[in-house]
Design brief:
single chain, 418 residues, alpha+beta, 2 domains, 8-stranded mixed β-sheet, 5-stranded mixed β-sheet, 16 helices, binds histidyl-adenosine monophosphate
Amino acid sequence: MKYQKIKGTCDVLPPESASWQHLESIVHEMMRRYNYQEIRVPIFETTELFTRGIGEGTDIVNKEMYSFHDMGGRSLTLRPEATASVVRSYIEESVGKRSPICKWYYIGPMFRQEKPQKGRYRQFQQFGAEALGSNDPAIDAEMIALSAGILEQVGIKDFVIWINSVGNPESRARHREELLRFVKPIVDKFPAVDREKIDRNPLRLFDSKLDVTIDLMQDAPLLEKFLDIDSQNDFERVQQALNNLDINYKIDPRLVRGLDYYTKTAFEIKSSALGAQDALSGGGRYDLLVEELGGSPTPAIGFASGMERIILMMEQGEGSLFRETPLDLYIVAREENEREEATRLASRFRQKQISVDLDYLSRSQKAQMKEAARQKACFALILFSDDLKLKKYQLKDLSTSEQQSLSFDQIVRRIKPE
Ligand code: HAM
């Protein structure tokens, strides 16, 4: 094989693409219900936007970005996530001046040079939402409800919502000191991949999937003990708001996120059905990011979900896997005049919102009937020269094999009853 797709990328072919369309339509519908409007940001941005936004010490910025120089010598990067781009656009377009609260959502590809495995890809699709302008804990709860609600709408039930508060930078700095005091004496016991996190961001040790690190961190001091009073109060209020919405959640005091911009609420939705890559969604508050990227101080919160992982769960039987919508009508025609009439009729049926296909391979009538069955068409329309003069056509219901001679209008009514 001369050309193959790049490792960590996926082709989505029919019929699987129908499941993608189904998921996307649910995302659009749920965002409408919660009054989030769609934003489309570029696939690539200046590298600095992501290094500043996501944080120099993160794995994403350190190891995973697809960065390149363009002809002008600028360093550009394929977006590894969309929050930084959304905030850049919010500031650049002065949106905060026009509307005190801004609720946006997006769907699109992201790029991270991670080691590919089941559920982890180098190009993957996310949908996500961002609400900028409010620090009300009720919107934190709305965000969690929205991300879980979309999973429920596709029929996924096997998941747990984990929440935590990661406080403000001061509380994290106090915790970091204490954490380093705990970790430094046992530094040699950590596996090499985790050891390198110690200087960069020791909080990330809590996120390790390695048993040795998990054991070593059992008695590590937790961030919750260092939380500032404001973060503590808001975390209480987020929980009350979730209770008020009857949303089940669990608190994980070890939940840390892989991006540096978070403050206060952090959450992840995980499913054990997914194996190692178990996070379906992740998000949280990022009250300092707008200012960090050059805007006025603006509280904000958001989340993003991995669509491949959702589709994987749908394929495993969780949720409804959608097959393509069936073809309404296949027109069977052989002689030249029949074939001409077939194309005219196809166009008229399509104007009536009926899906139609016809033969382009000059096949026999039998082969065309077989094709209609292969396409799982609901009806076949068989054209005969003699019938054409009368403007009547043979409509065959392919599920019952019943055949009738009908006019155009009668066929439309039969296929699409009012
Ligand atoms: P994240 O946790 O990096 O957050 O990604 C969100 C979700 O994207 C993950 O839970 C996972 O389902 C999916 N995902 C991440 N990496 C991959 C991958 N390599 N392959 C497949 N799926 C993946 C963010 O991206 C933040 N921007 C979320 C956010 C929005 N926070 C505030 N606003």
